[in-house]
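Exercise 7. Predict the joint structure of the components listed below.
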Amino acid sequence: NAGVIQTPRHKVTGKGQEATLWCEPISGHSAVFWYRQTIVQGLEFLTYFRNQAPIDDSGMPKERFSAQMPNQSHSTLKIQSTQPQDSAVYLCASSLDKGLRDFSAETLYFGSGTRLTVL
Amino acid sequence: GDSVTQTEGLVTLTEGLPVMLNCTYQTIYSNPFLFWYVQHLNESPRLLLKSFTDNKRTEHQGFHATLHKSSSSFHLQKSSAQLSDSALYYCALTPGTNAYKVIFGKGTHLHVLP
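Solution:
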């Protein structure tokens, strides 16, 4: 079990450029989450998918951020026209849905993150 | 909306002393799940312990916490701090049944001195 895989580990972009971050969840996990981590704000929820369907994107800055999950083995987070305030560690996590009615207690398994630096 | 509030910033204490990291939460739902995640330097967050049951103590790796719905609290405690406990600790909340979004507090840095 390789765990959640995120690529790249580090990404540096110029202001106004686009950044695409990749996440491969643990095989068999049906829920995928994206978080942004900064020293000031901690772990901020961005969006999550369940069985590839977008469920809640209430944390996403709507104008420049988008996320997709085209198949069960990967998800992408795209940031258009990056700004210096987007600099952060972006963490992807996956969770196993055992098919029970209440899945609220499932553990999140985090990837190593992508450190985005916008110059 | 749903939120989690933690002891902010840095908590520094000497090895062997007790640890208590505060966590309170707000939610309109009556059956939330509460979690503590720990993140060591250059690692990703990982689950430390979780609870759903009111007034029941949950323990793992020497740490314990009790969910108190009456005070909306889920404080993390350990009787004797170790150097290896130095890390960033996050309290988190899943508001309730079928509310899968996990909301984290801002985190508390614990620094244990020899």
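Discussion. Chain B is about 0% helix and 50% strand.
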